[in-house]
Amino acid sequence: MDLKTAGPDYPDKHKLLSYLTEFITAERKQKFLHAIALRTRYLTLVLEDIYQPHNASAVLRTCDCFGIQDVHIIENRNKYEVNPDVALGSAKWLSLFRYGGAASNTKECLLSLKDKGYTIVATSPHKDDHTPDDIPLDRKLALVFGTELMGLSDDALAMADSFIRIPMFGFTESLNVSVSAAIFIHSLAHRIRSSGIDWCLTEPEKTDVLLSWTLNSIRKPDILLRDYFKKNSS
After folding, report:
1. pLDDT for position 11
2. Are residues 82 and 5 in the same domain?
């Protein structure tokens, strides 16, 4: 048995986490505990068919910097590959969800997020759009970003519950996706954390994320997991 085959409902995750943290430094453990207290899923990002890996990787780096745990990656035409020189290892601290095998990956992703209680927010100018300063925060937000050239797909626009834009005052009035995402994330993350909203991860979510972080920090984690489950199997 390993952690994947044990499943999300494996009952002794705290015991497993305690075992695994013996193989990381006390300094790293404290850093994990500090970071997990500031992690959130109240705001999440959706990247639809981003074909420039340096831009998408910069978005991952921004999400990690501002404590956004989840990123959903839709691969209709373009397969996303992390650019290590830009992401700087940020991907291993995030929960990445890929959608690439359905007839309509965009619909699958956005329906899944709606089922989880997210408001789907298209980052596209619209007659009824919001800005980062005035969009309601009464429900969880999923910000959807499209390709640099074509923008969001018709499916994404049709399924959006709300629209958001960055007010601009120059001639070009255009930002690339990584810069746009950074502006949105900075503003919305600050508003969310300054509100009375319960934006933190739940205790089970914290345990799951800490397990992922710890496993990503250990050399040959498969061997440790195999030994652990062998000793603790009933």
Report:
1. 67
2. no
